[in-house]
Write a structure and sequence with these properties.
By secondary structure, the protein is mainly alpha-helical. It has seven helices and no strands.
Length: 120
Amino acid sequence: NSMACMLYMRVLATYKLWDEVDAMFLRLEPLTDGTDMTPLLGSLVDIAGNQYDWRRADDVWKRMVDLPAVRPTHIAYTALAKAHFLCGRPHVAASKIDEMLGKGIQINDRLALDHAQQLL
């Protein structure tokens, strides 16, 4: 089922087995059981960020953001901004937060402070 598949993808990503994660995307995309895959987006982007791999974070984002079962939240956007920030790209991190705000997604106080610091 899709929940087990998503959990397995997180484990693979944690161990930097991104080729296997990519292969799993092919199996996951046609699943139409109504499972919300938004948490998977945030998890995979966060894992890539913690591995200091902004390119992988962007790749995961581009691959998942347009799927019907994915609705990016402030958590997913924060993970994407964090990935760029950890990789020494604060200007890109700030632009991701700006993009989120442009879509009407609310931010919390902590993220607002981080955003202000990134703009400095």
